[in-house]
């Protein structure tokens, strides 16, 4: 019997890729997709995998590999697919030589994202088939099926996962890797050079392919009907299938493995045999609208929400009308995520807060600077938007308007797309100030390397892109590097640079406090005799510090990392290193 | 058997993820079907964190729903209070008495609730322990989770030998002994 292990959904996706004989994988980290590449790298003796600077690049790397004749993949979070949309929409026309799979990880419930978009809609818009597994075993199996399908139908395939699947563990049977012989490369401009004349022809092909898939999909083994009582029939896919099984064990279920294009005859057959048909899908009514467009009566978003995750309880209430006797949750203070004790972003934000400077924000841990007590970040849109939106404000309101504004962006996000925005500032004569919060890693997603860390995903040393050098090469005169914890210098530099009628880049440097796990910290202590209870040290909101009943400060020695920010803020010398 | 529903709650960084993985490994070794649901990404940054473990003959959904948990393991008191309504009527709460102020409390916008455990004890079966203090007495504050697990072990379906095996397999070799001591401390308390 095959070995059974317990596996994270994302690890199972990686395992599926490995077993399918994938040779090239490219990705940019993003919750909930990151662990796919982190797991794939364990198979580096059999395949190549990389962190690319952004999802568009990752997608194009995978396309190139596929064109050359090997099985290739890219993986990213849902909003990353927007960045990769440009190549995706066109590679739909080109198709695949070696199998080409895009793994897109959606985030219903917004655990770690800026929106709740549904990648299935992008698959539909780009005419790229979308598969959706329901557990770890299927995640692995569907990856293998996706590569076969990609080659058979000459199409890229999207495997769509969601946070709940990616970050759940379930049992998986392991198989051997299948070594796939490289497909020969043949020059074929009609297929691979997408200029208008050729693309017209390929558009016809795309439509034929889709029609073929609508027919053939009815026999795909990844779709199945589970006949039961026919009073209630449910069409579902992905994680919601599990909620259906839990809440409606008596119902008949059409479990779809392919969610775009839909296997029309299979759906019609199922619908014709059940009394009441429900469509259970999280987020958009993607399946529901198509089913209804064929004149099939069904119940969907009339009773189900388009927001957040579903649950068995939700189905019990909505479908069965059960009144669940649940206790209401206690009214307790919330515990939102916060910057860690010792985080260098806190130090930089404490200065911006003091100077009453607004920050156009970006995507990363430092987005947390939007909340009290730091309350520095005013805006967050998407990767790289801090810089370009600050530029837009200046063009709208003039250079004086942004004298109390900066853009803040992390090192990884800067290299992702911020770099383009900075080029625009230079080219279009901006005078704004950009702060690159350089913590030497991709922090939020759990410390992935990037083009400026000097190390690849496979662990090899490499050239580290020189961020200040890049800024200077663009023609920016004011490029200043400052230690993120040197409060006084930081304050002086920020004041000087925002006052200038020239573009400035301030690079605040200090590694993410969680990066070096072996580091031993000497915590700080507060001398209650010297403490004047002024509360200055509490202003940046360090979670290691609490106010005691008498108003003096207690520093938790298990949480304090010895960053020294509070010591610098104390005017009375009450805070010192333990043991000094 | 009916599917057993376990929830582990705490503050990001307290080791809920590792604890749920230990339980997952245990259920697999014992021959059950098992599913775990974890939290990664932004929520981990000092936020409220919840992980789910379900094991039994055939497990469908990977989450534990409100009113369905058999055992709620809480590494922090406020988090116990936040999630206690997930417990079944006859469910068991195992709570580390540590208090960690969330940011609204730190900045004075809210206050930390008082008398959490006496209040919860009126409605539920509660086992509480100052595991941090016990762990410090054993010589390593980091084994506090293992003490809490020791208590929880009395309310699950695994033998002591199975627990010992999974601890030996999961923790670094040099801290096996102290973790077994920590487990025993909790196990005896229950």
Strand content of chain A: 15-25%
**Assembly annotation:** heterodimer
CATH superfamily of the largest domain in chain A: Thiamin diphosphate (ThDP)-binding fold, Pyr/PP domains
Look at the structure and give the mean pLDDT of chain B. Answer: 93
Sheet with most strands of chain B: 6 strands, mixed
Largest interface, counted by CB within 8 Å of the partner chain's CB: A-B, 55 and 51 residues
SSE topology sketch:
The complex is a heterodimer of chains A (580) and B (190).
Chain A: E1 4-8, H1 9-19, E2 24-27, H2 34-40, E3 48-51, H3 55-68, E4 72-77, H4 78-83, H5 85-94, E5 100-106, H6 119-126, E6 130-131, H7 136-153, E7 157-162, H8 163-166, E8 168-173, H9 189-192, H10 196-216, E9 224-226, E10 229-237, H11 240-247, E11 251-256, E12 258-260, H12 264-273, E13 276-280, H13 286-293, H14 312-318, H15 344-354, E14 358-360, E15 377-379, H16 385-397, E16 405-410, H17 411-427, E17 433-438, H18 467-473, E18 478-483, H19 487-499, E19 504-509, E20 524-526, E21 545-547, E22 553-555, H20 565-569, E23 575-577
Parallel strand pairs in A: 2-3, 2-4, 4-5, 5-7, 6-7, 10-11, 10-13, 14-15, 14-16, 16-17, 17-19, 18-19
Antiparallel strand pairs in A: 1-8, 6-12, 9-11, 20-23, 21-22
Helix pairs in contact in A: 1-2, 1-7, 3-5, 11-14, 15-19, 16-17
Chain B: E1 4-11, H1 16-29, E2 33-37, E3 48-56, E4 69-74, H2 77-83, E5 87-96, H3 103-106, H4 116-121, E6 125-129, H5 131-138, H6 144-153, H7 160-170, H8 176-189
Parallel strand pairs in B: 1-4, 4-5, 5-6
Antiparallel strand pairs in B: 1-3, 2-3
Helix pairs in contact in B: 1-7, 5-6, 6-8
